[in-house]
Amino acid sequence: MPSLARSILAVIVGYMVMMLAVIVLTLIMVKTMGLKSGHPTPGYLAVNAGYSFLAAAIGGFVTASIARIKPLPHAAALAVLICVLTVVSYRGYRGNQPFWYQVAMVIVPSLCAIAGAALQARNASSTNI
Predict the structure, then answer these.
(1) Using CA atoms, how far apart are residues 106 and 104, in angstroms rounded to an integer?
(2) Which of 3, 89, 113, 127 has its CA 20 to 30 A from that of 38?
């Protein structure tokens, strides 16, 4: 596969894996916590943040695994994509979620994606010794 196509695919698949995990876990949490639409509880926000951070790390890991070469720049591209799409999506949630939560959900998942890629890069380099 050509390098540019592999790079684009790595970022897109990493993002899709992250979003699929978040969607599935959100559906499970909404069902188990009995939440009403538009009124998240503080407990739900905390749990959502936790699994969203984990999902972002997994997305970064997947991105780095697919990219193989220069995994951290690919994870940085994923991090930028996460930031941009999160900011765009949160414009519709203004007033329904605390400001601190929205800021954390823009910044921390991007850092987690890079951490996930760094973990994969470390694992890949240790198996190549």
Answers:
(1) 5
(2) 113
